Description:
Layout: H1 3-10, H2 15-22, E1 25-27, H3 39-56, H4 66-75, H5 80-107, H6 116-139, H7 143-157, H8 163-171, H9 178-210, E2 227-229, H10 230-255, H11 280-288, H12 291-306, H13 308-318, H14 324-345
Antiparallel strand pairs: 1-2
Helix pairs in contact: 3-5, 4-5, 5-6, 5-10, 6-7, 6-9, 7-8, 11-12, 11-14
The structure holds protoporphyrin IX containing FE.
Amino acid sequence: MGLASWLKRSFPVDQEALIRLTAEPIPNHLKRWWWALGGTPLYMFVVQVITGLMLIFYYVPETESAYKSIEYITYQADFGWLIRSMHRWSSNIMIAALLLHMMRVFFTRTYKPPRDINWMFGVTLFLLTLFFGFTGYSLVYEQMSYWAMKVGTGIAGATPIIGPWLADFIRGGSDIGQNTLTRFFLFHTVLLPLLIVMAIGGHLYLIRAHGVSELKFEGEKETEKKTFPLWPDHIFTELIMVSIIMIMLVTLSLLFPVELGEPANPNVTPLHIKPEWYFFPVFRWLKVTNLTIGVLGPLVFIMILFFWPYIDKFFDKIWPDKEVGFWIGVAGMLTINAFLVWEIFAH
Length: 347
Ligand code: HEM
């Protein structure tokens, strides 16, 4: 029996079903990368999983040894610095791509029913990714990690009603210590990956079920063919994109490898505490308000973002053709960017 017929007999695959599954029609505008940005965070997540698994071979989640194990990875393990840098850079690219993907979905208003639930899956994915960043940053157990945990869990503690319980739950007690590191390690390497894989599964299932929205562009001829097949056309476009993003990722990691700061010291508060750039707007907001408003603001923002498809529908009903949602989006983006820039230049 030949290899092909052995495989066909012992591992039968329904050819018809496979063709049906991969022959999904893709709208023409997804030939351009900026319209198909959803794929980028997906590849970055795969890179995160692979490089993260490599890091766990050497990482020790103990307050006494965590920093030393990262020191070992960065300065002694073969290519450890490169793997660590790729892990850090791909998390940044993932968040940047997510922001752009969200903006494209927002401004093309493709969150409208029936894609409302998929928008909510998206917001959940965004929050999970931010939590990935926060927990990962803390695992290094350098000064900034320690103080980010301190400030971050303090902010969680100011959440109305459940705050004190939430902070104790995340910390594993009333202060940062071994329990906190154990929990952050568990969140970062087990719980968050599980949740994000489930949420990506739901997101992709719904994209498949509804299809990607077909957008109309100015100057497009009516007779033009509106779609092209996923396999092989779209897959090839995506492969080219993956190659370009991977070259970009490796170049960034080679040119700007991740550094290591001072080890965590609970007795010395650093002069300037700075989180990662994607927390800058919230950090600046917290500085210009008090703790209660500082926490309530982002919570309200997240709720608005989550239920946006229905809020936008409501605006459309009372002010039809006024594009209120669009202008709220522009105002929101400008405000967030202003807070981001303010924090970049502030000392
Ligand atoms: C790990 C995170 C995510 C992955 C892997 C992902 C993946 C994708 C992919 C592959 C598409 C197909 C079209 C495209 O590429 O633009 C898509 C569409 C969509 N995404 Fe995401 N996405 C993620 C996060 C988000 C976020 C944060 C939001 C919004 C808050 C969102 C909302 C949507 C919506 C509503 C669609 C349908 C758009 C349409 O039909 O035109 N996604 N996503």
